[in-house]
Amino acid sequence: QMSGNSLWFYTDGDATSSIVGSGYFNSAYAELKQGDMILVAAGVGGTMESDLIVVTSATGAATVTTSKLA
After folding, report:
1. Contact present, 43 and 16 (Cβ < 8 Å)
2. Using CA atoms, how far apart are residues 30 and 59, in angstroms rounded to an integer?
3. Within 10 A of 66 (CB to CB), how many other CB atoms are there?
4. Residue 2: count of CB within 10 angstroms of its CB
5. CA Rg, the chain, in Å?
6. pTM for this model (two decimals)
7. Are 10 and 39 in contact (CB under 8 A)?
8. Whose CA is closest to 56, among 47, 65, 69?
9. How far apart are CA 33 and CA 7, in angstroms?
10. Bridge-based pairing state of the strands 47-57 and 7-12
11. Rounded distance, CA 51 to CA 2, Å?
12. How many angstroms separate the CA atoms of 15 and 60, rounded?
């Protein structure tokens, strides 16, 4: 059971494949926690992509890892 989790919205010009994975959100490690969800709106070359990702590790760590929800 997860409690106190947050839903974040993130928009950027990077491809979602670059955003998902280890290290992309390291600068926000103090705000993110395991189980938080991030709604991503990304655009590369004018093509918009969207995805929902979950923070798989962040609590007490300087490296934030995420993965796409299946």
Report:
1. no
2. 8
3. 24
4. 9
5. 12
6. 0.84
7. yes
8. 65
9. 11
10. unpaired
11. 21
12. 27
Buried b or exposed e, range 6-27, using 16+ CB within 10 angstroms: eeeebeeeeebeebbeeebbee
Name the E strands within the chain. Answer: 7-12, 37-44, 47-57, 65-68
pLDDT in tens, 23-62: 899 999 889 989 999 999 988 777 888 899 999 987 666 8
The C-alpha atoms of residue 25 and residue 10 are separated, in whole angstroms, by: 10
Burial class (CB in 10 A: 0-12, 13-18, 19+), 68: middle
In what order do the strands lie in the sheet containing 47-57? 7-12, 37-44, 47-57, 65-68
